[in-house]
Amino acid sequence: MGSFGARGKNQVKGAEITMQQAEDYFDSVMETAVDEFRRFEEEMEREAKVELSVVDDTAEKVKKMGDLMEKGANIVSKLYVEAVMKSVGFNGLSPNKVHPS
Fold first, then answer.
1. Helix (H, G, I), strand (E, B), or coil: what is residue 95?
2. Cα distance from N-terminal residue to C-terminal residue, the chain
3. Which domain of life is it from (predicted)?
4. Which whole-number Å values give the CA distances from 71 to 9, 12, 57, 60, in the listed order?
5. Distance (Å, whole) CA 73 – CA 68
6. What is the tens place of the pLDDT at every residue in 69-84?
7. 47 to each of 41, 55, 57, how far by Cα in Å?
8. Comparing C-alpha atoms, which of 31, 28, 2, 7 is closest to residue 15?
9. Dihedrals phi, psi of 89, to nearest 5 degrees
10. Alpha-carbon distance 1 to 32, whole Å?
């Protein structure tokens, strides 16, 4: 019975060693997974910043184009009003003209 006790102790010690190795392997795998996730997260953040920068640049270009279109529309509107006034014979108010009333 003494040899069984020693044999049982050896099996328990072997199981403890195996469990410790499994825990070490699990810890290693988890550490690797966490590191990979952090790298993935950092890469996604970098890509998001690049995409946001592109969107910001595009928005700024669109705003400038809108501003130019507004200025162009104002110029065309003024030219149109001037053309209409000339076509009806209105040459503007001059200090030499007297109002008919």
1. coil
2. 136
3. Eukaryota
4. 92, 87, 21, 17
5. 9
6. 999 999 999 999 999 9
7. 10, 12, 15
8. 7
9. 90, 10
10. 46
